[in-house]
Design brief:
alpha/beta; six-stranded parallel β-sheet; two-stranded antiparallel ribbon; 10 strands; about 20% strand
């Protein structure tokens, strides 16, 4: 809530009796009706527990992998939105296993979400290409065993971790291992990101088919770009998922993204 611009303070024992920790919310005479309405909306969106109700701690090690139907379609922005929503409910972090090119998606997600992202990619290659090609250009190779080790360590930690893949599902990590193969080995939760416009019906359904062959089904589908009601309706009907629609945010700011998280009721 502080990330959304509201000033809230925790009141904890010994100020209050054990088991009665709470948030203090104060309004003032100078607050406008719209500001108070926005605060109420933000509070309702988070489903705060009733007084005296024990809060169940988050399950340890919840990896949520952001998969795209292609590259450059908005996975990083969606990752930031997911991280913001998850962090509102408990511990949450971000990990980009392999970064290629000049982009720094970790820093972008940190800036947009307002959530610290101290974990750097396990591999970063200069060539803006698929991981296997970018690694080969430097005489190197992605060590899949190292990625496995990092993911096991993240599973052992409490809270959720948003994992953003490089490009689409069938992008190779090595000559022998696709990103899809790596997902099938670990079976995390999946969020699929696709374009909203022309071409998305084919690309989205092919990606869903590839996931289904590996026994994976996305928890959510996010369509990025100008709203396209016909495509959204077709994908909802054919996939059984109710797609989220993330329009182009101009300017793309933490405040704009947080507003979308609240308005779309994006929840863990």
């Amino acid at each position: 809530l502080q990330g959304a611009g509201f000033e809230l303070r925790a009141v904890r024992p010994p100020t209050v009796p054990p088991g009665t920790a709470r948030l203090r919310v104060v309004t003032h005479a100078f607050n406008t009706t719209d500001q108070i309405a926005n605060l109420a909306k933000a509070l309702l969106a988070r489903k705060l527990p009733a007084p005296g109700v024990a809060v169940t701690p988050p399950a340890p090690g919840r990896p949520i992998v952001v998969v795209g139907t292609d590259t450059g379609i908005g996975k990083t922005v969606v990752s930031a939105a997911l991280l913001r929503a998850l962090a509102d409910a408990g511990p949450a972090s971000y990990w980009k296993p392999v970064q290629t090119g000049d982009d720094d998606d970790t820093s972008t997600v940190e800036a947009l979400s307002g959530v610290p992202c101290p974990r750097r990619p396990d591999f970063h290659f200069a060539l803006p290409a698929a991981p296997h090609e970018a690694a080969q250009a430097e005489g190197d190779e992605v060590d899949v065993a190292r990625l496995d080790q990092t993911l096991r360590a993240l599973r052992a930690q409490p809270g959720a971790v948003v994992i953003e893949l490089a490009g689409g599902l069938h992008v190779p990590l090595t000559d022998d291992v696709l990103q899809a193969d790596w997902l099938a080995r670990h079976r995390p939760e999946v969020v699929l990101v696709a374009r909203s416009g022309l071409g998305t019906l084919n690309h989205t359904q092919l990606t869903l088919e590839a996931l289904a062959r590996r026994g994976l089904r996305p928890r959510a589908l996010v369509l990025v770009g100008d709203p396209h009601p016909a495509n959204r309706a077709t994908l909802a009907r054919r996939t059984g998922l109710e797609p989220y629609e993330l329009p182009w945010l101009d300017p793309l700011t933490p405040e704009a993204l947080q507003a979308w998280v609240v308005e779309s009721e994006l929840r863990p």
